[in-house]
Amino acid sequence: MSEIDAIILGIIQGLTEFLPVSSSGHLELGKAILGDRSIPSESLMFTVVLHFATALSTLVVFRKDVAEIFKGLFQFKWNDQTKFSLKIIISMIPATLIGFFFEEELEVLFGGNILFVGFMLLITALLLWLADKAKNTKKPVSYSNSFVIGISQAIALLPGISRAGATISSSVLLGNDKSQAARFSFLMVVPLIIGKIAKDFLSGDLAESTTETSVLVLGFIAAFISGIAACTWMIKLVRNSKLSYFAIYCFIVGVIAIIFGYLN
What we know:
The protein is 79% helix and 0% strand. It is mostly helical.
């Protein structure tokens, strides 16, 4: 992978992380179009680094929310911040278990399997279409909802299944407020990604990667900057626009990906 390709993919990650269109799926499509021939483990490592960059951009954009959560936690009281943090922890359980026990199986899926990505995008389109039919309410995310949303996040580990799309859709289908569903969706992934990076660092996986440092750094910077720009003005778009628009987009890209996969 060249440094220019890394920048392009970083921008793709930053722009698509906050829309329900599957950033991982778009990364795999981008790699295929750019002719990336990385082995699955290296491809997954690059993807993880880009997701880490957008996780940091999320912290920057939601810095007031995060500061408020930590402030509440250090009061050591059963307050709203403590309840929200517990819900975040509950939502992490499914994806943590899947990532821990099926990491090698997931790596194989990040090797440019465009046909698979295409079919997963069609599933994302279906989820968004169903969520678009649900009525918006003022209901907050409950503890049981957190676990169900967490299952959606675990399923979204598959390239082509939008994490934001799956979690927001499942939350809305459970009857939760769309605005709160979006906020919860963006914040719930941050500790998961940071935990993944910490695990790889401590296990030595990052050191074993043969991906050039310059490629990882440039991809990281591109994803971080574009992620901040996208998050600040796209979150409102996700909250206010009809999810059916994104469903149509995912359906079209999914069909194109399937055709591309069959022809290649």
